[in-house]
Amino acid sequence: MKPTQLMITVDPPFDFHQCLTFLRRSETEVMHVATDDAVWKLFDMNGRLRLGEIKAAAPGLVVTFEEEEITNEDKADVERYVREWFDLDQDVASFERLAETHDLLRPLVREYGGLRLIGFPDLFEALAWGIIGQQITLSFAYTLKRRFVERYGQSREVDGVTHWTFPRPESVAVLSPGDLRDMQFSVRKAEYIIGIAREMTAGTLSKQQLRSCSPEQIQRRLLELRGVGEWTADYVRMKCFQDKTAFPVADAGLHQALKYHLERNDKLTLEEVRAIGESFAGWEAYATFYLWRSLYGNV
C-alpha cells in the first residue's frame, strides 16, 4: 500500500523549524517525537491508532501516513488537529507588524519569526498539563506527564519507537486519587485531574460547548473547575482555544523573561506586567510565547 499524504496550506509567516525547536525542548516529552526536520504524532482515529510524520513542504506542511488506510474524514480530522496544534489559522503577520514597532518584541520576532503558538487541541490534555505543572519544576512536570501517559494512554510501536496518545477522560474518570499517588502526584492534583475527567465524561464540560463562548465566559467556566486558578485558565485559553488576548500575568517564566530583557534585578509587580501587556494589547498570548521562547539558552 502506498503512503497516504495530506497537504496543509499555511499562510506566511511560518517557520516549521522554529516550531520544531519548541517541540524538542524536553527529552522527556512523550506526546510526540521531534527531529531536526520532522515530528511524528500518533493520531487516534475513532479507536484506530495511526502514526503521521509531519514535515515542511511548500506551501506549508505535509503529513505522511506510511502504508495506512486513511479516509477523507480522517484526513479532515488530522488537518483540523494540526491546524489547531500549530495555530495555523492565526494572522501572525499582524503580530509581526506590531512587534516591529515594539522595543521589547522587535528583537524577538526578528530572531524567532514564523514561530507559531504551539498548543493543545485536546481540552483534557490542556487542563491536565496545566494542573500537572502547578508549583513544580518544568522538568518534573514532564516526568509526571510521561508516567501518566504511559500508564493510561494508548500506544503503538513503529520501527522500535513507542508513540503515545493522551489518556482519554473516560479512562481517567474511573480512577481514584490513590491510583496516581504512586506516580508522585499529590492528592490534590490527582483529585483535580480525575474530577475534570469525570465532568468531561458526564458531558458537562467540553471544548465544543465552550467554542461558542466569549473569552470571559470561557475564563469563568474554567475557574469553576477544582484545581483551575487564573494562571491555568489563562494558559488553557492560550494553548487550547487559540485566544491571542490571553495573558498569564503571574506566570513565573513570563516574569523571568521580562526581567532578563528589561535588565531588571528587582521583582516586577503584577501591575507593572499588566502595564507592559497593554503595550501589545490584542497579542498578549503571542508576546508571552515569544518571551518564553527567549528563555532557552539565555536564562
Automatic annotation (TrEMBL):
SMART domains, per database record = AlkA_N (SM01009), ENDO3c (SM00478)
Q: Which UniProt keywords apply?
A: DNA damage, DNA repair, Glycosidase, Hydrolase
What gene name is listed for this protein? alkA
Its ancestry begins with: Bacteria, Bacillati, Bacillota, Bacilli, Bacillales
- List where this protein forms a coiled coil: none
Domain named DNA-3-methyladenine glycosylase AlkA N-terminal is located at 5-122
Q: What is this enzyme's EC?
A: 3.2.2.21
Protein family per UniProt: Belongs to the alkylbase DNA glycosidase AlkA family.
Q: What is this protein called?
A: DNA-3-methyladenine glycosylase II
Per UniProt, the enzyme's principal EC class comes to: hydrolase
**InterPro entries linked:** AlkA_N, AlkA_N_sf, Alkylbase_DNA_Glycosylase/TA, DNA_glycosylase, HhH-GPD_domain, HhH_base_excis_C
